[in-house]
Amino acid sequence: MNSLIRRGIYPLYCNTFKLSTRYFADEAVKEKIDQIVKNNKVVVFMKGIPDAPRCGFSNAVVQIMRMHAVPYESLDVLSDENIRQGIKDYSNWPTIPQVFINGEFVGGCDIMLQMHQSGELVEELKKVGIKSALLTAEESKKEGA
Amino acid sequence: MSLSFQHGRLISDLVTRKMTSLGGVVANAIKTKLETALQTKHLEVINESYMHNVPKGAETHFKVVVVSDKFDGLPLIKRHRLVNDILQEELRSGVHALSIVAKTPQQWDVSDKVIESSPNCRGGFGK
């Protein structure tokens, strides 16, 4: 009886179960990501953590955030395979890191770098009520002069 | 002695030149697809895989410099999405990192045309 279950019914049941849980898992991951990006002004999906990034591109984004002194939520995709794939599906963007501001996908490393260089990032942060440290520094320099 | 040294260097020069001009299978596919889809005015496909913890000759990490009229009027994110879409197949089947510089011919002409190499790897690849 036991072997019958193992060989016959069990795998069948298991496969259907896996398929349906897979679907629900995808939905659950999507829901989870949705909550995270909507409940935080700035979110970075990255490899590693801000204190120890495990990819040069992720590190570049962390450094940019540090320069602007942006408070942000970070998620390590290396510690959660579901999120790693889920975030790519969610934003329809094939690579990590990914930055969200105000629930909206802004871009990866290249775009963040360019926004930083062009000053656009300061403006985007301002829109969500975050004052970039670079702006503060510039202002105090002017006041001092 | 010095002759054989020179000879060796000559060969390695030749090999390097050959490698850069030929490029790999994936690099060539990327090149052809971008050229065709975007009618690029300038295109560079740089294999940066050597900077990462992957086997020699791997084609996993790329940087592309794309100059095309089709980027006219498109914000950066849409330009990147366009490139990502064209290279969808490659990104799904082994290309792991793609850094993109996307400019219009006008932007390219006034730029300093210096392409910085991507940040160093920190070992997260394949994990």
Short summary:
The complex is a heterodimer of chains A (145) and B (127). In chain A, 63% of the residues lie in helices and 14% in strands.
What does this structure look like?
Chain A is α+β, with helices and mostly antiparallel strands and 145 residues long. Chain A has a single domain, classed as Glutaredoxin (3-Layer(aba) Sandwich). In chain A, 63% of the residues lie in helices and 14% in strands. Chain A contains six helices and six strands; from the N terminus they run αβββαβαββααα. In chain A, the strands form two sheets. In chain A, strands 4-1-5-6 form a four-stranded mixed sheet, sandwiched between helices. In chain A, strands 2-3 form a two-stranded antiparallel ribbon. The mean pLDDT of chain A is 89. Chain B is α+β, with helices and mostly antiparallel strands and 127 residues long. Chain B has a domain of 64 residues: GMP Synthetase, Chain A, domain 3 (2-Layer Sandwich), CATH 3.30.300. Chain B contains five helices and three strands; from the N terminus they run ααββααβα. Chain B has a three-stranded mixed sheet. Chains A and B meet through helix 2, strand 6 and helix 4 of A and helix 3, helix 4 and strand 3 of B. Chain B: InterPro entries: BolA, BolA-like_sf, BolA/IbaG_stress_morph_reg. Chain B: This is BolA-like protein.
